[in-house]
Structures are given as C-alpha cells and as structure tokens.
Amino acid sequence: MSLQAAGAVSPAAPAAPVSADPLAQTPLHALHLRLGAKMVPFAGYAMPLQYPAGLLKEHLHTRAAAGLFDVSHMGQIALTPRSGDVAEAARALEALIPIDILGLPEGRQRYGFLTDEAGGILDDLMVARLPGRLHVVVNAANKAAGFAHLRAHLPDDLDMTLVPDALIALQGPKAAEVLARLAPETEVMRFMDVRAVAILGAPCLVSRSGYTGEDGFEISVPAERAEAVAEALLAEAEVLPVGLGARDSLRLEAGLPLHGADIDPGTNPVEASLAWAISPTRRRGGAREGGFPGADTILAAMEAGPSRRRVGLRPEGRAPVRADAPLFAAEAGGEPVGRVTSGGFGPSVGAPVAMGFLPAALTAPGTRIFAEVRGQRLPLVVSPLPFVPAGFKRG
Q: Which residues belong to any copy of the GCVT N-terminal domain (predicted)?
C-alpha cells in the first residue's frame, strides 16, 4: 500500500464507480494528457489507465528497469501533536492500529491497517515517524472516510492535516540508480526508510517503498513542483510512465492485496494472510497486547488459526479467472467453497494468476480446485505468494 498501496483497476474491468460530481485532477493531469494517456475515472479522480506503450510493455518495463506512477489520489495525512511529543501521537494511533508505532524509529515506516470492532479491515495504510509528526498514507477510495475515522477517534490536541502534495512512485530495479542522479542521498536508503530530500530544489518526502513488489521509492512533492520532478525522472532513459492497469497487474503478481477487492471490513487480518504485520508487542503476551478495535477476535484467530485464508491461485489453462468467480472443491456438483478476489494475466509470469479465499483445509500449496467461468469449471492450483519474488532492498 502507499508511500504504499493505491487501489488500481483491473485491466479487464470497468473503472471503479464514481459519483456524478466532476472528477478531481491530480497535479500531473496535464502531463498525462501530453503523454497520450488513456484516462479513466477512479476513486473520484481522472487517472491514467495506460499510455501509448500499452499495459504489457509498461508492466514488463517496470520489472526490468523503472516505471513512474502517479498515485496523487492517495490520502496523505499529517498527525502533529501540539505538545511536540510524537510519542503521544504514537500511543493514540496504536489504539486504532495493531502495530508498534511507539517503537517505530524516526525515519522509518510500517505497513498496518485500521480495524473495526469486529476485527475487519477498514483500510490498509502506511505510518511513518518523522520529526515532530506521524505521516499516514491511506487508500484513495477511503481517503475521506479514513480521515473522518481518525479525527473521530484521536484526541483533539492531535492536529490532523490532509497533505495537498502530489505523490509519485518510481518503481523497478533501476529506480535507485535513476533517483540517485537527482538526489544522491537516496541511494543509501533501505526498504521502509523515509527522509526529507530536496529534488530539483523542491522539498520532498521520500520513502523506499511501493506496491509493485519491486525496489523503488514513493515521493511526496509539492503540487506546484510535481510536474517538473516527474518530467526530470521521465527524461532518464530507464523510466517509462505507467498507469493504473499495469499497477494492478504488478501488485497482483507480487501477491499484494487491494482494499475493496481482496480485503475489506468483512475480512480480518489473519484470514487475509496479513498477520505478519501485527507487531509482536501488540500480540498475546506482548508489552502492549491488544488495545485496538477487534483485538479479541484477531488475536484469537492468530492462536486458533482462521477458518479461511487468502491464497494464490494458478489457473491450469491460459484463460484468466477474474474477480468474483466462485470456487468449488470438485469439478462437478457441490456448493461454492470460496471465491476469486483478484485475477488476470501475469505478464512476468507468462500465465494467468489470481488470489482468492478458501477454507483452511483447502489452502495447502498444490491443492486442486475449480473456478466457475461462464458456466464451466476451470481447474486451478493453490500457489504460494508472491508469484514473482520481491525485489526490495532489505539491507
């Protein structure tokens, strides 16, 4: 997710529904048009689905070199304690999120999620600790709701601001080499580092993170300087502009869940295979055990194991299996045992890939199941995630 996850549309699916209100535009809107992007409505914004190179080339180029994404539709929220004590903000936010924020070092960030009283995932997000404040990035479709949820549950002496800056993501194995030409200090950053960096004289907040499974960076840049920074990056031979379509196929190959598709308030983190993100200090026996919405449900599921789980799926044929296809244990007869939540063709894999939920008894890798597509049942095999190994810089 953002400095993390953006929601993205499936390349074969219609754009996400939006209201009748005029679409918002990101600070890079004019640049998208000049680059010949196919624009679509998404989460209330006009966003580039793909550019003239096409989804396939954009996807493969990101895996081989570097792709530049506009993710300015994401919500960036600054949490600033009036006392100046960031630990106060961390303690307050821990009451809403099952991760260790109090122990998060300055200049680092963590992936987490807002949970509800039933243990469901209201949104997944990133939290960074910076001098004097926390920086939270939420998904585009949940921006208004996420801001309202935080404001309603955090103390009044914790100031909240929706940051108006643009957010761009430079992703791929050549990303570090490219960005270092404009900001040499970024080259030594590790995965999940965050720091203030000047790029072309613009004060930026850079994190070494992204949602493609590749090494890369997300760059928060003042809106009025966003186009200049984006154009400077695109001027490098290794960089290609990439739209929402390839963003979706990249995160699917990386086994990364999309809120509103693979995870939602009806999904708890354990069955979503996201228990790894729950910090040890917030688990049973931890120094600050529980204390977040739905803690009893989530921690009990961690101990007993979930009744169902999100898994990777590899169709045996060449036909992609899309979201919402029901899953069956047998080739004929019986009731559905699960469903596909994301699916499409994996350009790097060279074959269709999917994710979905199955009963725990059917989640062992190699288990054969069936998806119903246009009245026919197609065989799939449960597969470990990710489909493509992650390229993050850990050290």
A: 28-279
